Amino acid sequence: AAQQHKRHAVSRLFNPTVSDHEFTDDACAATPRLRAARDGDVSALSGSESAPITALMVACRARQHAAVEALLAAGSHVNARSARGCTALYLAAEEGSASSV
To answer: CA triplet 87, 88, 90: central angle to 5 degrees?
Structure first.
């Protein structure tokens, strides 16, 4: 029923995805830049990064479209892969965020 009604978070409680194991609350809050992406704080997203989990990935997973747009405009590496192979596009699609996809 959760899948039919597009309740992704509920569905994933029963059937976790690859990213659920990697993009935990702690991982998405590991640095100020990742917290800003998670929270949609566009003004705090300046600077570069080379971590396995990028701000663009976190913003896509958190459905923060304004942050996604700001990071793309700033030249974020869209094809970066996390340790388990997740990309920002994968995370946006997994969350059902058509605007970020």
So the answer is: 65
Tokens coding 81: 């892969």
Burial string for 61-81 (b: 16+ CB within 10 Å, else e) reads bbbbbebbebbeeeebeeebe
Please report the sign of the dihedral spanned by the C-alpha atoms of residue 26, residue 30, residue 82, residue 73. positive
> How does DSSP classify residue 21?
H
Full-model pTM: 0.65
Rg (CA), the chain: 13
Summarised one tens digit per residue, pLDDT across range 3-40 is 788 787 788 788 888 888 888 889 989 989 899 999 99
